[in-house]
Amino acid sequence: MRGQPLFTFRMGYAGRSLEFRVGRTGAIVAAAVVGGLFVLLTQGIYDIRDNISKLGELRSLREQVSERNLAMYGLVAKFDGLAAEVERLRAMDTRVRSLAKANESLRGGGPGGVGGTETPEAAASGRLDKLLELKFDGMKKALLVDVKDMEILGETLDRRRLLLESVPRGWPVRGMVSSGFGVRTSPFTDTPVFHHGLDIVARPGTGVWAAASGTVVKSGYEALLGNVVIVDHGAGYRSVYAHLSRREVEENTFVNRGEEIGKVGATGRTTGPHLHYEVRVNGLPVNPTRFLN
Q: Mean pLDDT, to the nearest integer, of 247-253?
């Protein structure tokens, strides 16, 4: 019949049971609610799976970004290394140019050109990162070779410059030569003797200059030479300045070419005011005249 319930439920014990009756309308509503819940649950499950998939993709993207960042850091490091090599090359070039200007014997020459080409492997032509890496490595090797060659040239120029700076040059005092290098008649014994230097006559108190840069190895008094200053210029060269009225430098001090080291005088065994000037090479006296001009 129309009013008869579609479902009947009993709950509880006999005498104390509860009875529920569900009609057609209630059953339809209940079915609709259950269907809606099932749809929502299914959609939730799909959403959760989709979110999990997106999380995986996000994690993969993060890993790729990290790898790209590491690659970029590697490229930046290579750029920094290349920049350091370029700065080193520039510093060496400046040094070589200054040495070349200071060395008059090498004015006509100069360092060779800087350059080089790099050819990447055919297999790497389609990969930008590999191509950059190959080019960086090739440029770095080329720069290292050029820097090494320039260092060798710089060392050669250094040795020649030190040799040139070690050689006495110019007059140590303004004056006139009264006695040359070699055999002469002694003004004290009237017998032939060998004179180890030049006697340059000048007014007493006239400044005496170092003929080359070096270290003062002796600044003292000797019976024959009087007040004497000896300068070691390196490379086996030494210069001697004797009969000084006054010494202006102390032992173990460094003097530059043209720096005043004493005054013309007449100390020691001498017939009058003058400078006795010697040049010694590896301990042996040589003619100072060759070094005056």
A: 96
Over the stretch 99-131, which tens digit does the pLDDT of each residue have? 666 554 544 444 444 344 344 444 444 555 565
Q: How confident is the model at residue 260 (pLDDT cuts 50, 70, 90)?
A: very high
What is the mean pLDDT of the segment spanning 2-26? 59
What is each CA distance from 242 to 7, 14, 199, 227, 286, in whole angstroms?
140, 144, 10, 6, 16
In one letter, which amino acid is 57?
Answer: E
DSSP codes of every residue in the chain: -TTS-SEEEEESSTTS-EEEEE-HHHHHHHHHHHHHHHHHHHHHHHHHHHHHHHHHHHHHHHHHHHHHHHHHHHHHHHHHHHHHHHHHHHHHHHHHHHHHHH-GGGTT--PPP--------GGGTT-HHHHHHHHHHHHHHHHHHHHHHHHHHHHHHHHHHHHHHHS--S-SSSSEEEE-SEEEE-TTT-SEEEE-SEEEE--TT-EEE-SS-EEEEEEEEETTTEEEEEEEEETTEEEEEEEEEEE---TT-EE-TT-EEEEEB--SS-SSSBEEEEEEETTEEE-GGGGT-
Average pLDDT of the chain is 77
Give every CB contact of residue 88 below 8 A, 6+ residues apart in sequence: 147
pLDDT at 274 over 90: yes
Q: How far is CA 187 from the centre of its chain?
A: 60
Kindly report the pTM of this predicted structure.
0.49
Tokens of 159: 């040795």
* 176 token code pair: 């006139």
Instruction: Quote the tokens at residue 190.
Output: 């009237």
